[in-house]
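REQUEST
  id: r-88c1
  op: predict_structure
  target: Transmembrane epididymal protein (DUF716)
  payload:
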Amino acid sequence: MGTFVGHFVPGLAFTFLGLWHTICTIKCYKLKGPSHFTSTTWFPINTRNHFIKHLELYLLFTFSIVVIILQLINHPFQALNYEHASMYLHVALYSFLAIVIDLSPSSNSLSGLVTTLAASVFAQELLLLHFHSADHVGLEGHYHWLLQLIVAASVVATFLSGISSNSFPAAIVRSGCVILQGWWFMVMGFALWMPKLLPKGCHVENGEVACASEEITKKAMAVANLEFSWAVAGVWVVVAFLTLRLDWKLEYRQLQGPTVRESDGLKLVNRLDNGVGLV
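RESPONSE
  id: r-88c1
  status: 200
  body:
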């Protein structure tokens, strides 16, 4: 995915997915309360229609299959593209099995398996990024190393939310990491594959980013560190804003019998004051 589109489109998809998860996690926590909150790795839409209910998973599965096909068609004999396709293969397997499990009679008892599958998706992504066949060095390698930090945090947060399903911090960190991964993909697309935005003294050569000197590379890495820090801060500002601003409350409907009207009550009090009893 050494192109602008190859980074921007998946980044946009991850960002929307992370925002969806963040909003739904906050909603579930505020509606159910700390004692009844249970984290989940996907969120159904409240409807009887099977397709719409599992729309998130169907979109994930479709997007993953499309990316796999594009990766294999464009460069069918390059190991790099097989690695990218394998990342999305795990996403496709997760979304497909999550649908199957949810439709099974024992879906409640298998919810932990879905969380394990989600953690496996991030773990496989981390593995393939770390042992990438493309030897990312210099500035491009630094951006990918920072990406690995995000994916590693996603692995840890997902495993923790599986171990402690009532933990709101683990669930919200996992959702925030998905947003951050999407943002960082888009930052990489702009910073590495938009010629006008490349640091001065750096250029794209044979599909790789190269800088004129070691000093220029170090300065560009320092800028990347700042971009990463700002991206992390931006994500948590968004998460905090959504947590504080979004408000859902349970509405209780109290069933009660017929009551004495206020005017009838006043008449009754007057009658009692005048010594008149109830008939």
